[in-house]
Design goal:
homodimer, 413 residues, alpha/beta, Molybdenum Cofactor Biosythetic Enzyme, Chain A, Alpha-Beta Plaits, Maf protein, 3 domains, 6-stranded mixed β-sheet, 5-stranded mixed β-sheet, globular
Chain lengths: 413, 413
């Protein structure tokens, strides 16, 4: 079956919003084995939205529309779909009950007149409750096409899809699509392809598709089969061959694994702790670590030592080290890592110092970054030259720091 | 003139990549006064890409295509466009020169066979140099349509668009579109609309469009006019009226202003410094501050005190305060803010403590967050109950902390 995603919103056409719904829904549909050939974005305009939905309805089995279900006057998706399928909008008692009962408690706001719009449904449609917002979703099915209407905010789309839409769509599943994601850090996309070009050229089932992420390269290995078990068997030899060739760079073959999760799992399992000292990344590294629920077990404290004085005062970096080698140097990175480890009595420590730009500092280029990892009496330090703007240098440096720690962890424990 | 954005890449259809190019290009095109009615995403498939580009060519003036110009074998955009416009791919000496001269230095890698694909251009097209990657871009113009081909990585798209495409497109500009963005924090979208529904209903030129961002509400006020000066005059009364009604929540009317920029500008101008102590946000607040170039002038250091021990040891929070009120309490937030201010001798300090989830802590709900700001002998503390998952709680708490500091700054200096 073929699914088409339609994102509604003038704010998307004007570039005011990043379309994270499309990413989430595309990923979920791919997992269900649904094919996807087009994604469309269209504005809150009756005529154009009508055309886009009608066109999609004529060529696809399932349409998932996000956006335009809100209370405000420019939200017209429900009205347009009702017109396309030739149905009325009718009062829905259940939605009215929910609005009157839960709205003030849920939102902390009084009901305003425009909220009542959200108690109307398309005739013959299924209403999907929204436990994270005020706009219900809808599924309308006829012999031509299934149309699924979801709200716009990602925090409402994700739970509504998982709780209501996924169980509904599963009944249409036939052949399953199963994939593994081999993730690498420390190697470029072009080099990866050169090393596996023979595998890519000969691919049929499974297929291999490379993607570059910030500081990482991912290979998606996808098999089509009657069962997950069979698909796993189809994928196995390819994964083995990739490991033969690229093992030094691979950190996982599971899509949901992130560098930070792998690290936290490993530290937790071994009852080890981590501390962090950041300069140019200014909190991003600690932010990645603490994004993981359960990180408090392994991470107690971090220091953002942006100035030289802070490096000296809080981490005990010697003034001499900074004046002789500069703040952007392997020596300072090492002193920061050892300083924070000693100061916090943690088992491992990570430090980052570098120039995120936009201007050269200490006569050192934008993008020059030193990352150190300390453990017991030993340490490792690596030099990176990261291309791009301030944001890119900071993001890549954060990823490289996580990867350095990962390598150290899997080497020593 | 009407522009249509086409994003190429199976990775977009599978949901493996967030389409940040579409956001950037849509915003730039809107600024140029180009209308945009559709954005399309299509995979690396010859037939479907051919259809999508042909369709767009039949109904639009300008097509901007991103992606599929890379060195790997699934990159076929150039080939498809050449077919659509009925031209050959021919060798481009200039691209060949650049490849041979700069490629190894630029990428730190050897030239591989597949890189030579990037030295071919569409006959009669303009080649756009890529100073941030290896794939050149192209502009092909005939009497039917202008087709602009850009690479996929955002770090290459942005400079190539600004340096080469923008000057090219400016010659087609006629009426200009000028907009201001009134940004608010501390109020919900629905409430904003209720307060200005009469303005929205009567809008023609300028138009008013509301957008909800994480923790913020934005109103875009857009005017169409012959000159920027005239557009500014058209917008002025609407901005004044919005300020009349919503002044308490408005922090800027300039699109490029972020809370963090406003804060850093204000602190810098007054030679004041800031320090930060974070618990549940774990570095995100410092990360937002240090994302701004020039932040080192006002920000020297930050502490991520995730554990109670760290709060006591590094910030001097009294053990009694935590045992009596809990780590998630206004008292602890205040003690953290005062502690970090004293410890670092900074003028202002900000602290965040709360429960980001997923489980209740100290019998306190997920989403309960306390934020304190200290300055001289005084302090302010605010309580927030943020709905949603761990990530959302952390992001919103960070935004609310920046907004609290902003309010304090503009109150006292």
């Amino acid at each position: 079956m073929v699914v088409e995603l339609i994102s509604v919103g003038t704010e998307l056409l004007l570039g005011n919003t990043l379309n994270t719904n499309a990413v989430f829904l595309a990923k979920e549909c791919a997992k269900l084995g649904l094919s996807s050939f087009h994604q469309i974005t269209v504005g809150d305009n009756f005529k154009r939205m009508y055309e886009v939905i009608s066109d999609a309805r004529s060529r696809t089995d399932i349409i998932i529309i996000t956006g335009g279900l809100g209370p405000t006057s420019d939200d017209i998706t429900k009205e347009v779909v009702a017109n396309v399928v030739n149905k009325e909008l009718i009062a829905d008692d259940h939605s009215m009950d929910l609005l009157m009962t839960y709205f003030p408690a849920k939102t902390g706001q009084n009901i305003t007149q425009n909220n009542f719009k959200q108690t109307l449904k398309i005739e013959d449609s299924i209403v999907l409750d929204n436990s994270n917002g005020t706009a219900p979703g809808y599924i309308y099915e006829d012999d031509k096409c299934i149309i699924i209407l979801l709200p716009g905010p990602p925090s409402e789309v994700v739970p509504m899809f998982k709780n209501s839409v996924l169980p509904y769509l599963k009944k249409f599943q036939n052949n399953i699509i199963y994939s593994k994601m081999v993730k690498m850090c420390g190697i470029g996309e072009s080099k990866v392809e050169t090393m596996i070009i023979d595998l890519i050229k000969n691919q049929t089932n499974p297929t291999i598709a490379p993607y570059a992420k910030e500081g990482e390269v991912h290979l998606r290995i996808t098999a089509s089969a009657y069962s997950e078990k069979e698909a796993k068997e189809i994928i196995k030899p390819t994964i083995l061959e990739l490991k033969n060739r690229l093992n030094d760079y691979i950190f996982t073959e599971n899509e949901e694994d992130l560098l930070e999760n792998i690290i936290i799992k490993k530290l937790s399992a071994n009852n080890l702790t981590l501390s962090i000292a950041e300069s140019c990344t200014g909190g991003l590294l600690a932010g990645r670590i603490t994004s993981v629920s359960g990180s408090s077990k392994i991470f107690n404290e971090g220091f953002i030592t942006y100035s030289n004085e802070a490096k000296i005062k809080h981490l005990g970096v010697l003034e001499d080290v900074i004046s002789k080698h500069g703040a952007i140097s392997p020596e300072t990175a090492i002193a920061m890592a050892e300083g924070v480890k000693n100061k916090t009595n943690s088992d491992y420590s990570l430090s980052i110092t570098g120039n995120a730009g936009p201007n050269s500092l200490e006569n050192k280029d934008v993008g020059l970054v030193f990352i150190a990892c300390a453990f017991k009496e030993s340490f490792t330090v690596e030099e990176f030259r990261i291309k791009g703007n301030r944001n890119r240098v900071r993001e890549y440096a954060t990823t490289y720091a996580l990867n350095l720690l990962r390598k150290e962890l899997f080497k020593s424990i």
